[in-house]
Amino acid sequence: MEIQQKLLTVNQYSRPGTKLKQVKNIVVHWVGNANSTAIANRNYFESLKERKSFASSHYIIGLQGEIIQCVPESEIAYHANNANSYSIGIEVCHPDWQGKFSEITYKSLINLLADLCKRYSLEPTTAIIRHYDVTKKLCPKYYVEHSGAWLQLKQDVKVNMGTEDTELKKAAEILYKRNIISVLSAWDDVTKFKLEYVPGLLKNMGGIDRLVKDKIISDKLLWEYKQYNANHVRDLIIKYSKLG
């Protein structure tokens, strides 16, 4: 994996030089400018020192899979509001306004994410997040609108790393032995979850009220109004498996 280091000039608007004290998350963005290049977006960040506007990222991945580093990993970049203080930001170029990353761009993104997760000892399933997960901004657009593609992206990172979600697998095995679930393979891989089956899972666990009482669920309305996603279900399975 080749990375072109084209660091921004230290300035208060796009590279403040502030130390990044910890890395808990990696935030994926789309550049929001169809068919623009990585170097053009890097140069835009550089220009902000004159425009007096705040924005930047640590990395930009281009349409040909090129990776440009704009800000050292040891410093914060301005990409995700409050998450700036504990995350690395990656902006990704896209060929059109649908926002789906091209195959070669996607491959570079997976390689970079896997490398970062290894170096910072991060679990891809929980550590890799979208800009949307921080601010509810529609970014990266395609992967907000297609949650299955987002889950697959994180799974592809795990495959690249040669790892699997052992915590979920162990939890699902416990539920299988307790007859809470009848098909182990449907619940031991977050990318294979079918959310339409979650009401049945909740029923087998004793229902939402019981789960609230047992402090497995904290947000009752999330489950009653079916606003949960696959990561919520993953956490539910793991927490329930720890009940005595």
Automatic annotation (TrEMBL):
**Alphabetic keyword roster:** Cell wall biogenesis/degradation, Hydrolase
InterPro entries per the UniProt record, alphabetical: Amidase/PGRP_sf, Amidase_domain, NAMLAA_amidase_2
Which top-level enzyme class is recorded in the Swiss-Prot or TrEMBL entry?
hydrolase
A Gene Ontology MF term for this entry? N-acetylmuramoyl-L-alanine amidase activity
Assigned EC number = 3.5.1.28
**What is the superkingdom listed in this entry's lineage?**
Bacteria
The keyword Membrane is annotated on this UniProt entry: no
Per its record, the protein catalyses:
Hydrolyzes the link between N-acetylmuramoyl residues and L-amino acid residues in certain cell-wall glycopeptides
Give the signal peptide, or none. none
Q: Which SUPFAM superfamilies match?
A: N-acetylmuramoyl-L-alanine amidase-like
N-acetylmuramoyl-L-alanine amidase domain boundaries: 13-158
Q: Does the keyword Acetylation apply?
A: no
GO annotation, biological process:
cell wall organization; peptidoglycan catabolic process; peptidoglycan turnover
Protein name (record): N-acetylmuramoyl-L-alanine amidase
